[in-house]
Amino acid sequence: MSDAPLPPSCDVLVIGAGPAGSACAQMLARARLHTVLVDQHDFPRDKVCGDGLIPDAHAALRRLGVYDEVMAQAQPAQHVACIGPRGGRVDVPGSVAVLPRKVLDHILVRAAQRAGAALHTPWRFEAPLIDGTQVVGARLKGGEQVYEVRAPWVVMATGAVPQAMIASELCQRRTPTGIALRGYVRNPALVGRIRALEIVWHKRLKQGYGWIFPCPDGVFNIGVGLGDCFSLAGTQRLRMQDVNLRQVFEAFCEIYAPARELMATGTPLGELKGAPLRCSLDGAAYSRAGMLATGEAIGSTYDFSGEGIGKAMQTGMLAAAALVKGHEQRLADATVRDEYEAAIRALQPRFELYRKASRVNAHPWLADLVIWRARNSPRILRRMSGVLEETANPGNLVSARGLAKLFLPIR
């Protein structure tokens, strides 16, 4: 908990100290803006996540100056293992690692503080302060105390739970685009046997996927996720209310032997925990006068893979860049918002490609086909690695044209 009292005003008030909010606050503070960062929880705190750090997260961590600190505590891996319904497997090379969010987020928030951002916890966002149509600050609640902080700009980095975005009148869809359930299990016997980030597709996983990611100290992150899945025709949608995630988790442990062994012989560290996902840069307005929204609050998670840490940090830094430019060049509010929204829209084509690639979740036989070809074709394996490294188009692998190519002679 912060000892210093909240200030009555600041240049930028950032709500939410996860990866997006902490990244944004750090970049603002670097530029000498008086930045106040608030969160409803004291740190360190837990966060439901797969904890995987793929190449876009590595790039963001380097920009934030914390890459070495993160990697010193993370569990490195050299591959993402894609495992199909028939048991076929291909190990896709890439720069990947795993670090529980309780540790990662604490590193990121401390980096924001070192840059000069003032962290205050536990304070919950209640509502924006409005002057006409302009946001001019926020009303916060800590315990029984209510406090108002005025600021020319408020950044909403409040994650997938929509209440804060609803109060800010930025939420356009209250339901999530995905859901996930995960737990931590200590099992030293599996150290060295599970070394990659394993992702499993199967028809019993209800248009989703299961995962096992190796964490440091003999701990494994195991979970299941379900995205906003479509049929090949783009018409079949999975309704979240039709899904019991614990049953999906149990099915994962039945159909995938390493998951079954992990749970049967390991020691669970706490309960299984669930969380909503907001994907594909969809479901929220990116800004209003005096306010920007960033991170998973605007859907910064990839639909296909459920990965969102890297893009959350990236969007947070884009928000900071727009605000810093606006401050330094004395730009009008509308110009700052236009700059930021244009930067977010520039990311949308990649998110749309991942949304299309999520048809693998709805049709696991596609995973079997891609894995079989990748095991026999260095070219396709390179393309899959390029998707992971964000140098190739994920949609091409499961587009109509891409599927046709998979049936061509191997080369």
Question: What does this protein structure show overall?
Answer:
The chain is 37% helix and 24% strand. The protein is an alpha/beta fold. It starts with 11 loop residues before the first strand and ends in a 5-residue tail after the last helix. The chain folds into 2 domains: 177 residues, FAD/NAD(P)-binding domain; 123 residues, D-Amino Acid Oxidase, Chain A, domain 2, CATH 3.30.9. Helix 2 runs parallel beside helix 8 and helix 6 packs across helix 7.
Topology:
Layout: E1 12-15, H1 19-30, E2 35-38, E3 52-53, H2 55-63, H3 67-73, E4 75-83, E5 89-98, H4 101-115, E6 118-120, E7 124-131, E8 134-142, E9 145-150, E10 153-156, H5 163-167, E11 178-186, E12 197-200, E13 208-214, E14 219-226, H6 245-255, H7 257-265, E15 267-268, E16 273-277, E17 287-288, E18 291-293, H8 309-329, H9 333-345, H10 348-357, H11 359-362, H12 365-376, H13 378-388, H14 394-398, H15 400-406
Parallel strand pairs: 1-2, 1-10, 2-6, 4-12, 10-18
Antiparallel strand pairs: 3-5, 4-5, 7-8, 8-9, 11-14, 11-15, 11-16, 12-13, 13-14, 17-18
Helix pairs in contact: 1-4, 1-8, 2-8, 6-7, 8-9, 12-13
